[in-house]
Design brief:
mainly alpha, globular, 2 domains, Na+/H+ antiporter like fold
Length: 403
């Protein structure tokens, strides 16, 4: 059987399983994303190990599925940004800033204290804290979209806090790695300047140039020209965020969507991308998170530390980000909701952990425990968010689009 046929079979199974599991979880009152995550664990090496079934002989299938999933998370964050507006995010800047800062500081402190308690040493303890400080808002964004709460005060504050979180974790991680390799303060300053330059450049392009390009492309006799333009800009922003801004690609995709949200062509772009994203790429992304985890790798010692750091990871975001949101004038209920939304580590936690393992800053045993923590925090976030939004929320009215 050719590699293409093997890939086609795997994708068909993954898509069917994702949609079926999503449907079943909605029947029990939970977000569909929870079912997609769980079925990924079942199909992954923890149980079925679909990528290594006897008839799957190509070693490239797993990599292709992973990369398709990466496109899925970019599309998800682009669509989340497309539903918002810069003015809406600015209204919650205080809660976002404080929620992001406290949501990084407290988990890092918890992780460092746990590492010290287990005699991991200063370097390994500090890096453990960094893995707890990361967050992945893609899971929460999808859940809030399903709950029709993305444009509530909590949803807006959460997305802003996630951007702050991403910047801080990357800055602290870069600082830590620079110090480990004998770097100096100049390297740290350069990292910070690159972040600011990327944000300023991407926003400036989106405010003054992108609307004109969108209007021009909309008049061209090209099939789905606007949707193609949106995909190109999303990918360029994502690549630029990592290569030039030192940030996560999902942050770049979110900013790209935010820039397109103020164009007159927003509705056409959203209609075209939503069908592609939610029928193919996004389900693969959520399933692939489960495929990335192998529960069988956890021994007893790793299981204990996994449970300890999972509790610390949940409490760190819930208390840290929640307290920050409260200091930012959110109500207690809104603060708790924002804290819950920051709990998931998702693909960002996996990336940070992989960096630590490759650099020799964490042991394989601790790496396995961190992977378990990422899975637990990712799985508990959707049902916790659903429960916290038991009462209906009132979304903000959007400001008028600016051409």
């Amino acid at each position: 059987m050719t590699t293409f046929l093997q890939l086609a079979i795997v994708l068909a199974i993954l898509l069917f399983s994702a949609k079926a599991a999503g449907y079943l979880t909605t029947k029990i009152g939970q977000p569909s994303v929870l079912g997609e995550l769980l079925v990924g664990v079942i199909l992954g090496p923890s149980l079925i190990n679909i990528i290594h079934l006897p008839f799957i002989t190509s070693h490239e299938i797993g990599s292709v599925v992973k990369e398709l999933g990466e496109i899925g998370v970019l599309l998800l964050m682009f669509l989340a940004g497309l539903e918002l507006h810069l003015n809406e995010l600015a209204q919650n800047k205080k809660a976002s800033a404080l929620g992001g800062v406290f949501g990084v500081a407290l988990p890092i402190l918890f992780g460092f204290l746990i590492g010290t308690f287990y005699d991991y040493g200063i370097e390994q303890s500090m890096f453990l804290g960094l893995t707890l400080g990361a967050t992945s808002v893609s899971i929460s964004a999808q859940t809030l979209i399903e709950l029709k709460a993305l444009r509530s005060r909590v949803g807006l504050g959460l997305l802003g806090a996630a951007v702050i979180d991403d910047m801080l974790v990357i800055l602290v991680l870069s600082t830590f790695l620079a110090l480990q390799s004998g770097g100096n303060a100049l390297q740290i300053v350069v990292v910070f300047i690159k972040m600011i330059a990327f944000l300023a450049g991407s926003v400036a392009f989106g405010l003054w140039i992108l609307p004109r390009i969108s209007r021009y492309v909309s008049r061209l006799p090209i099939s789905q020209g606007l949707v193609t333009l949106a995909l190109i800009i999303m990918l360029v922003y994502g690549v630029s965020a990592e290569l030039f801004g030192g940030m996560a690609a999902i942050t770049g995709a979110f900013i790209a969507g935010l820039m397109f949200s103020r164009t007159r062509e927003k509705v056409e772009i959203e209609r075209g991308l939503r069908a592609v994203a939610y029928s193919f790429f996004v389900p693969i992304f959520f399933v692939n998170i489960g495929l990335s985890v192998n529960i069988r790798d956890l021994d007893i010692s790793a299981l204990v530390i996994m449970l300890v750091i999972s509790v610390a990871a949940i409490l760190g975001k819930l208390i840290g980000s929640g307290l920050g949101a409260k200091l930012g004038d959110f109500t207690w209920r809104e603060s708790i909701q924002l804290g819950i939304g920051m709990i998931s580590r998702g693909e960002v936690g996996l990336i940070v952990a992989a960096v630590g393992l490759e650099a020799g800053l964490i042991s394989p045993n601790l790496f396995s425990a961190i992977i378990g923590m990422v899975l637990i925090t990712t799985l508990v976030t959707p049902p916790m968010l659903r429960a916290s939004f038991a009462k209906p929320v009132t979304p903000h009215q959007p400001p008028a689009n600016i051409a």
